[in-house]
Amino acid sequence: MKENNYPLILKQIESLIDENVSFYPNLGNILALVKESLSLFWVGTYIVQKNHLVLGPFQGPPACTLIEKGKGVCGKSWEKERPFLVPDVHSFEGHIACNPHSKSEIVIPLRDQNKKVFMVLDIDSDELNGLGQKELDFFQEVSFIIEKIYRKSL
Ligand code: SME
Question: How far is the centre of ligand 1, averaged over its atoms, from the C-alpha of 20 (Å)?
Answer without folding.
Answer: 32
